[in-house]
């Protein structure tokens, strides 16, 4: 099991002593990359099972009425949790439509396109596979790849700001939205390590292989 990020030795400290997200990213990447293959595979299954329970719970709550709910997922890159087996399974759920992100404009909110296991995929702006010739969709549930997180729902991503812009734009519409971070448990940060920026969008919960971290304010 990979170790968690430790407090007390911040690099490039902000005022008040907390390290910047840029300083934490290399540490978070290294801890995640150190996970043994078997542990990673087991963690992926656990994360998918917990996500499925949380999604079903949300669907049963009726917040989106009787229409099909758009679930925006992500294609794994590097050492991210691999949800592709779960996506194939969820694609058969008549209550859901699945979508994947597309970078159509650099430094802008993501777009999302319908995805099924039969959808043609091709590398996009950052060499991440994206759906081709698929219609756009507006998400109701967004699964957010998360490198590091706090118990308050604050997230450290990869520094591009795409998901912060996307969540801000989606929340500004007033539509019901559920934002679920997806992370290995080793990405959890102690409370004194990370101070979010004003533009950082908090998550409604973070689903990890150790359980669901749900901020008490949510």
Number of H- or I-type helical stretches: 4
The CATH fourth-level homologous superfamily: NagB/RpiA/CoA transferase-like
Radius of gyration: 17 Å
Which CATH class applies here? Answer: Alpha Beta
Estimate the strand proportion: 15-25%
Which class of secondary structure composition applies to the elements? alpha/beta
Query: What is the CATH topology descriptor?
Result: Rossmann fold
Mean pLDDT value: 90
Order of helices and strands: HHEHEEEEEEEHEEE
Strand arrangement in the largest pleated sheet: 3-2-1-6-9-10-11
Shape: globular
Number of domains: 1
Question: How far from one another are the termini?
Answer: 30 Å
- The residue fraction in helices comes out at 25-40%
Reported CATH architecture: 3-Layer(aba) Sandwich
Q: Uncertain regions: pLDDT < 50 for 5+ in a row?
A: 1-14
Number of strands: 11
Described by strand count, sense and barrel closure, the largest sheet is:
7 strands, mixed
Give me a quick take on this structure.
The protein is α/β, with parallel strands linked by helices. It has helices at 21-33, 37-60, 84-90, 162-172, and strands at residues 69-72, 96-102, 111-115, 121-123, 129-131, 141-145, 148-149, 155-156, 178-182, 205-208, 211-213. It has one domain (21-187): NagB/RpiA/CoA transferase-like (Rossmann fold), CATH 3.40.50.10420.
